[in-house]
Specification:
Layout lengths: L4 H11 L10 H13 L8 E3 L1 H5 L26 E2 L2 E2 L2 E8 L1 E5 H6 L8 H12 L8 E2 L1 E2 L3 H25 L7 H16 L7 E2 H10 L4 E4 L13 E4 L6 E10 L7 H12 L1 H8 L18 H10 L3 E3 L2 H5 L1 H16 L4 H9 L4
Parallel strand pairs: 6-9, 7-8, 11-12
Antiparallel strand pairs: 1-11, 2-3, 4-11, 5-9, 5-10
Helix pairs in contact: 1-9, 1-10, 6-7, 6-13, 13-14
């Protein structure tokens, strides 16, 4: 709320429209909204909610195609809330999973350079593994399994592309297909066998190990900038060749039952526009979806993330999108893969058994 208030204040100053801000968890809204909609009511005039939820509830949501131009946003973003050619949601800023984070001071101390090719990435990992005190070059965060799924999805996106990635989501591509097997066999599994990834450990605890120098790299989302002592010492790079990233924008929609549709559209237009998003990113910790936001408007550490995304395609998180039994199986199988990389084909077969 503290970092969002300046944006709302700027909107009121520009338009004269007063805004009352209320805090709801998305999980609570998922319970509240259906009952309210059935009664022709809504708890607010503009509501932030998951993109998939918006796309599945269009009967109760206003079409905002007249105020949202998909070309103004990161490619793929508005697609998430477009149904039958109509736009039912508007993107705001969000969080991204851009790649491997490192301490700039660590790289400088050991004369390390950011890789630009796969060969350079492999050489970097080998060099790091020989540094005294390093247990494994890459920290493997674990919880219920999602940190491992994030890095795996990054490999799939980079070496398989967005069509294959989407195919795994909708079930048109098999996890045991030759294309998927090649990514695991030729890219991910050799790194696991070489010991370049650590054994999985609670993602918040291993973050501390990484920060203290037990590991040099850590694949994590952009929220990591708020979890370290000195964010200005953070650098980040993606796998060489990456052209798409899992990006989680916040989306907003207008319920059909609002008493102020014109004013609500003005707010949606402002928040999704470059002006509103610029004010937000200046607060730190946010990445814009609107292409009109300038790199110089970001705090330095967020600017590095935004630079990676220039010209890239945004996609939804694979395991979150599919969900259900697939997601838990995916997590469990990846945890097994990390310590039994030789059994990668069995892992893929087990994942496919629960896939869409």
């Amino acid at each position: 709320m503290e970092s969002f208030t300046p944006v709302l204040e700027a909107f009121t100053e520009k338009t004269g429209i007063e805004v009352e801000y209320r805090i709801y968890r998305a999980e609570d809204l998922a319970t509240i909204l259906p009952a309210q909609f059935e009664s022709g009511m809504a708890p607010a005039d503009v509501i932030f909610m998951w993109a998939w939820w918006i796309a599945n509830n269009t009967d109760h949501i206003l079409d905002v195609s007249d105020v949202i131009n998909p070309d103004d946003f990161m490619p793929g973003t508005v697609d998430q809330v477009t149904v039958d050619g109509k736009i039912y949601g508007a993107p705001y800023t969000g969080k991204v999973k851009p790649g491997f984070w490192y301490r700039i001071s660590f790289f400088e101390e050991h004369n390390l350079e950011v890789p630009t090719t796969w060969a350079e990435f492999e050489t970097l990992l080998e060099t790091i593994s020989e540094i005294p005190g390093i247990e494994a070059p890459i920290a493997s965060g674990d919880g219920v399994g999602w940190p491992l799924s994030d890095v795996t999805e990054h490999f799939i996106l980079t070496f398989g592309g967005t069509e294959l990635f989407q195919g795994l989501i909708d079930g048109s591509v098999s996890w045991t297909s030759d294309e998927v097997k090649a990514i695991f066999r030729d890219k991910l599994v050799p790194l696991l066998k070489a010991g370049y990834f650590s054994e999985p450990k609670d993602w918040t605890l291993i973050l501390e190990d990484w920060w203290e120098g037990t590991h040099a790299l850590y694949f994590m989302g952009s929220w990591i900038t708020g979890m370290v002592d000195n964010a200005s010492d953070l650098g980040v790079f993606s796998l060489p060749g990456a052209e798409a990233f899992v990006f989680g924008p916040d989306f907003m929609f207008i319920p059909k039952y609002t008493e102020y549709p014109a004013e609500a559209k003005e707010l949606v237009k402002f928040l999704s526009g470059a002006e509103g998003q610029t004010i937000q990113v200046k607060q730190g910790g946010h990445i814009a979806t609107n292409l009109g936001v300038k790199l110089d408007d970001y705090p330095e550490v967020d600017k590095r993330v935004a630079q990676l995304l220039e010209g890239a395609t945004a996609v939804t998180d694979l395991d979150d999108t599919v969900g259900g039994e697939f997601q838990t199986t995916f997590w469990d199988q990846l945890k097994y893969l990390w310590v039994h990389p030789d059994e990668w084909e069995d892992v893929l077969a087990n994942i496919e058994a629960k896939a869409p």
